[in-house]
Amino acid sequence: MSAVMQNPAKISSEPFLNKVAKSFGAASDSYIQGARLQQQVALDALALLPKQPYGHLLDLGCGPGWLHPRLIQHCQKLTAIDLSAGMLARAAQANIASQYLQADAQQLPLADASVDNVFSSLMLQWCKEPVAVFTEVARVLKPGGTVVMTTLVDGTLGELRQAFAALDNRQHVNHFLPPDALRQAASKVSGMQWQFEQRRYPLYYPNVQAIARELKTLGANQVAGRQAGGLTGKGYWQRLAEVYAQHRTVLGLPASYQVVVISGVKHGN
Q1: Cα dist. 104→11, 97, 136 in Å?
Q2: What is the CA radius of gyration of the chain?
Q3: How many CA atoms lie within 13 Å of 131's alpha carbon, on the beta-carbon side?
Q4: In 3D, which of 146, 148, 138 has the Cα closest to residue 185?
Q5: How far apart are CA 119 and CA 22, in angstroms?
Q6: What is the pLDDT of residue 2?
Q7: Which residues pair with 195 in a beta bridge?
Q8: Contact 64, 121 (CB under 8 A)
Q9: ∠210-211-213 over CA atoms, to 5°?
């Protein structure tokens, strides 16, 4: 089995990111069974990635590595990077990638112009400085190399946010950047040609508790700026369920995710 390599200089010192990494690590065993959205988005994005039996591909934010049997069809060498040691250890069990590196996407432990293509799905929204990620991706890409990334943007979990807002003014759902902010960040990186496409992914649940359980199963229940003290009162959840019920459809309670698909090509031959 390939070893998980740690580079302390490349691991984030930001407290919230470390909490996110620990949360995802704790969810590494349950992640795949709850990752409906992640699988839909990644498979859709994969169709944009050049399929070639050669070259070096970087999977940035690889998670438990469930996509690696497909990604290896797009390259000769696969490098997997994630901030979570737990996720990397789970991915390394399959021994598909050539190397598994624990690192912050804003500080990649790779040489300039060392990879042919980059794939990253639903990782960017956890990074405080997307321009740093775009800069690093451009740096490690070879001329003519491509990148396909997906990220959550403003409007995600809008139904859940509205339901919480009807009860109190505390922050219960993460705020995500608007698409224009991502475009502006990408525009600051020279030598790249970018394209952006926004897509909506609705998922349906029997009740609001099922939504909360799935977020916890995925390790995606860390909320930046949330005050200490969890929501444990039965009465609170009952009121939340009553408010959320106005969104119910024949398919169940919707939880909508707004996703931007980012594709880019590095100038050169």
Answers
A1: 5, 18, 10
A2: 19
A3: 9
A4: 138
A5: 22
A6: 58
A7: 263
A8: no
A9: 65
Fold (topology level) of 4-154+175-201+257-266: Rossmann fold (3.40.50)
H helices, E strands: number in the chain: 10, 8
Is residue 201 within 8 A of residue 229, CB to CB? The reply is no
Q: Which residues contact 32 (CB under 8 A, 6 or more apart)?
A: 64, 66
Cβ-count burial 111-132 (b if 16+ within 10 Å, e if not): eeeebbbbbbbbbbbbbeebbb
How far apart CA 245 and CA 247 sit, in angstroms, is: 5
Within 10 A of 69 (CB to CB), how many other CB atoms are there?
10
The owner of tokens 């902010």 is 181
Alpha helices in the chain (DSSP H): 15-26, 31-34, 36-46, 68-71, 85-92, 130-140, 158-165, 179-187, 208-217, 234-244
Q: Are 37 and 203 in contact (CB under 8 A)?
A: yes
Neighbours of 28 (CB within 10 A): 21
- Taking residues 247-255, report their average pLDDT: 92
In the predicted model, what is the mean pLDDT of the chain? Answer: 84
Instruction: Report yes or no: 173 and 157 within 8 Å, Cβ to Cβ.
Output: yes
Q: What are phi and psi of 197, to 5 degrees?
A: -140, 130
Residues 6+ apart with CB under 8 A from 119: 45, 46, 49, 57, 58, 59, 60, 71, 74, 147, 148, 149
- Residue ranges per domain, the chain? 4-154+175-201+257-266
The first and second tokens of residue 113, run together, are 């112009």
- For the record, the structure tokens of 30 come out as 């349950």
Locus of tokens 């309670």: 253
Q: pLDDT (tens digit, 9 = 90+) per residue, 46-96?
A: 999 988 889 999 999 999 899 999 999 999 999 999 998 888 999 999 999
